[in-house]
Every structure is written in structure tokens, then in C-alpha cells.
Design a protein that fits this description.
One of its GO terms (biological process) is retrograde transport, endosome to Golgi. GO terms for molecular function: guanyl-nucleotide exchange factor activity; small GTPase binding. This protein has helices spanning about 30-40, 50-55, 85-95, 140-160, 170-175, 180-195, 220-235, 245-255, and strands at about 15-20, 70-75, 100-105, 110-120, 125-135, 205-215, 265, 270-275. By secondary structure, the chain is an alpha+beta fold. The strands form 2 sheets. Strands 1, 2, 3, 4, 5 and 6 form a 6-stranded antiparallel beta sheet that branches. Strands 7-8 form a two-stranded antiparallel sheet. The longest helix has 22 residues, at about 140-160. The relative contact order is 0.19.
């Protein structure tokens, strides 16, 4: 009989995880995430055009709207005996939509979500993830995004200038009295390049990144507060009172799981964090 959570853990959190862009492997299309997004977007829409598999690869989307593979960049500790680290599951659930790119004109508000990992024996661990955007400093990645946009705009230009069917005799006579289509297409191309482009010399590129806590029980509000304070410390020009490593160490090794039916208060980066453990453990929901 299982308890529904990792009974061997006596800690508030088992792992701290970082997921995001691996600059060494570069930009890898994430077909699975793209396919899921396509299905979600067309779930309530009739008459979806195009082949599902081809649409799922989302190559017709502008590069900033495509999905790319994210990876688990680091996790601490390496492993705990009572809760072996499942890198594939954690990586997929931390960033289920893959990597997202933005520029300085786009909204980049942090987003919080939770998930559950259920093992074959019925035991569960809980994940709480905060996704935010940070500036891309890799010139290689910025250049790759610029190249993708050059290719995308060239393809869109060809589409706008490709006739849908061969002209008939009537159409051929009509063409002599009409201006060339390229003259009318120029404003459309200009708008396409202005609102659907990335210029490495002008724009600042941002990529999504995720920090996550893996816990033996569901403490959503406490984990959200911990992660938000860690993100604030990373993004603030003023460094926190102590090195970030000390706060992460404290969460992983010095904060215990609250006793059943009791509350626990511990220190975060900028303020106290309170969590409460229910007295009776049932089917926990997030």
C-alpha cells in the first residue's frame, strides 16, 4: 500500500532544477511540443487546413513563434535515494511547450505552473515551476535566429508571388491592363518584415528559462513564493544579502517537511515563507 507521496523524504524539497536553452546543442525544433500546440489551437476550430504532421512541425510559423527543445541544464542534488531523479519526465513537464523566444517588444511576464509525477507503484512527487525570460548572450544563437528569419521571409516572399493556378487566356489578356503584382506586394512585404522579424543589430533576443522545485508533498503557495523570490534575486540589479547557493542549500537540506497538521515558517531570499501540511493525507490535488 502506498501513501501517495515519497514516504522516505523528510525534507520540504528534494530537488532544485534548472531547465532552458543548451547553447552547445543550439536550436533544435521540438516537433512534439509544436504538435501539441497545434492540436490545442485547432481543438474547437472546424476545417483546419493542411496536414496535421506538417502543421505540427510549425515551420510556417515565424521563428519567434516556433517551439524548440529545452533541456535540464542542472539539478541539485544529483540524486536522492528515496526519490530517483527522472530527467525525461521533469524536463518535459517543466517546459511542456518547449523553449519560447521573445524580443524587447513582447510581453515577458513570469508564469507559474505545477505538475505531478506518478510512478508505477502509485507513489507521487510534485513539481512547481516558474518560467521566465532572460536575455540571450550567445552570439551563435542570435545568429541562428537571424538566419531562420532570413529563410522564413524568403519563403513568405515566394508564397506571396506564386500564382495559385496557371493563367488562362482571359487572365493573360487581363494582365496586360493590370500593374505587375510585385508593385502591390511591396507594402505587404514591408509589413511582414517590420512586424514579423528579428534584426540582430537592432533587437534584443530573450529565451524562456525555468526553475523548479521537486517536492514529496504538494506545497504550491510556498513553492511559488520561494521561486518568485529566487527569480527576483536573479533579475534584480541589487544582489541578495547572501549568495543564491546558500538559499538553495537551505531549501534542500535545512528546511524539513512540516509535521502532520502543523505549519512551518522558514526564511526565503527576501521574506518568510509559510507552508502547512494537512492532518489527513488524501488524494492530493494541485
Amino acid at each position: 500500500m502506498t501513501t501517495g507521496f515519497s514516504s522516505g523524504s523528510c525534507r520540504f524539497a528534494d530537488y532544485f532544477v534548472i531547465c532552458g536553452l543548451d547553447t552547445e546543442s543550439g536550436l533544435e525544433p521540438d516537433e512534439l511540443s509544436a504538435l501539441c500546440q497545434y492540436i490545442e489551437a485547432t481543438k474547437f476550430r472546424d476545417g483546419a487546413r493542411g496536414n496535421l504532421a506538417n502543421e505540427g512541425e510549425n515551420f510556417e510559423q515565424s521563428p519567434l513563434r516556433r517551439t524548440f527543445k529545452s533541456k535540464v541544464l542542472a539539478h541539485f542534488p544529483d540524486n536522492v535515494e528515496w526519490n530517483p531523479f527522472d530527467q525525461d519526465a521533469v524536463g518535459m513537464l517543466c517546459m511542456p511547450k518547449g523553449l519560447a523566444f521573445r524580443t524587447q517588444i513582447d510581453s515577458r511576464e513570469p508564469q507559474f505552473h505545477s505538475f505531478i509525477i506518478t510512478r508505477e507503484d502509485g507513489s507521487r512527487t510534485y513539481g512547481f515551476a516558474l518560467t521566465f525570460f532572460e536575455e540571450v548572450t550567445s552570439k551563435q544563437i542570435c545568429s541562428a535566429m537571424q538566419t531562420l528569419y532570413h529563410m522564413h521571409n524568403a519563403e513568405q516572399y515566394d508564397i506571396l508571388h506564386t500564382p495559385t493556378s496557371p493563367p488562362g487566356p482571359e487572365d493573360q489578356r487581363h494582365q496586360h491592363s493590370q500593374p505587375r503584382p510585385s508593385a502591390h506586394a511591396a507594402p505587404a512585404i514591408s509589413r511582414l518584415q517590420r512586424f514579423n522579424s528579428y534584426d540582430i543589430s537592432r533587437d534584443t533576443l530573450y529565451v524562456s528559462k525555468c526553475i523548479c522545485l521537486i517536492t514529496p508533498m504538494a506545497f504550491p503557495q510556498a513553492c511559488r513564493k520561494v521561486l518568485q523570490q529566487l527569480h527576483q534575486a536573479v533579475s534584480s540589479p541589487q544582489p541578495p544579502p547572501l549568495p543564491l547557493e546558500s538559499y538553495i542549500y537551505n531549501i534542500l537540506y535545512e528546511v524539513p517537511m512540516p509535521p502532520s497538521g502543523r505549519s512551518l515558517k522558514f526564511s526565503g531570499v527576501y521574506g518568510p515563507v509559510v507552508c502547512q501540511r494537512p492532518k489527513h493525507i488524501g488524494a492530493a490535488t494541485l
